[in-house]
Design brief:
alpha/beta, Nucleotidyltransferase, domain 5, Hypothetical protein af1432, 6-stranded mixed β-sheet, 14 helices, 9% strand, disordered C terminus
């Protein structure tokens, strides 16, 4: 079981080594609970009783379902749980926690830390290591929620992970886009990577696109003394040649016009508005069509 206590909600994830089995969520975030139940400083006994009762009632069905699967191990992520482990270690040893990832926060240690935090004023909690003003304000509610989860599921503690939702989203993206990433990772420069990523997104024939780009650049280089264009112009021609047929994903008839639209709206990175217009217009007029004086499409250089 993986536990994440955020500001607005608590997430529980049941997984085995291979995959996620299911996820559960409850509105038991540390900030939400603090704003709803903690009225005094330090928290009054009545406030704590009301908070504890609310956590018990709100998490009841969720923990019952999780308990049916009898999770063998608990892992914790999120700032609140990280802060609890760091503070707990400090209160017990008077030394900073050297390494967060893999650290085990036991239920007994969490219980002692929760009782100490409940007796402190906000100013006293703010003086504790690893607690900024915001975290110190909401840490009591987070501690009580986590304590209840471990007690109800009869887990002796939890192992901490310094990864959270943000890292999980990155890992998931990498897994889902491995082919795309590997195809562009070796390409230098944000601009070219963005163009290649766009081609991959629309599944354009890369062999044809690269062949046309190579021919275009050979002509550019051979005629350098005639046109006297700059290296930047060469780069934009390269991008336009790669993208010239991208409009065919909409339809081959009128694909040049479609290419102009896609290029202008594909969020290509590292290119200015003027550079995008140049690339889009080269793609727009790569066939026999020519710009008209009154055309609504900006003309090429």
């Amino acid at each position: 079981m993986i536990v994440d206590i955020g500001g607005g909600s608590m997430q529980l994830v049941l997984a085995n080594r291979e995959r996620c089995l299911y996820t559960l969520s409850a509105p038991l975030g540390a900030l939400r609970l603090t704003e709803s139940f903690v009225r005094s400083d330090p928290p009054a006994r009545r406030d704590l009783q009301r908070l504890r009762q609310h956590v018990r009632e709100t998490a009841g069905e969720l923990l019952k379902k999780m308990g049916e699967s009898a999770p063998a191990q608990a892992y914790g992520s999120s700032g609140s749980i990280h802060a609890l482990a760091t503070v707990s270690h400090w209160l017990e040893t008077s030394t900073p926690l050297a390494h967060l990832n893999g650290h085990v926060l036991t239920l007994d240690s969490l219980r002692r830390t929760t009782r100490q935090l409940q007796a402190m004023t906000l100013r006293e909690r703010e003086r504790l290591p690893a607690l900024d003003a915001h975290r110190a304000e909401i840490i009591v509610a987070g501690a009580m929620t986590l304590e209840h989860v471990l007690e109800e599921l009869e887990l002796p503690g939890m192992t901490l992970s310094d990864f959270g939702v943000r890292e999980g989203m990155v890992s998931d993206y990498v897994a889902r886009h491995a082919g795309e990433i590997s195809s562009v990772a070796r390409r230098p420069g944000l601009r070219l990577r963005s163009v290649l990523r766009c081609l991959g997104r629309f599944r354009i024939d890369m062999r044809h696109a690269k062949h046309i780009a190579r021919l275009a650049l050979e002509l550019f280089d051979a005629l350098q003394e005639v046109h006297e264009l700059s290296p930047l112009d060469r780069e934009l021609l390269h991008f336009a040649a790669l993208l010239h047929d991208i409009g065919s994903v909409i339809g081959y008839d009128g694909h040049a016009e479609h290419a102009h639209y896609i290029i202008m709206n594909a969020s290509l990175r590292g290119l200015s508005a003027e550079e995008l217009r140049v690339i889009a217009n080269v793609a727009r007029y790569h066939n026999k069509a020519r710009p008209r004086t009154r055309t609504s499409t900006p003309s090429t250089r």
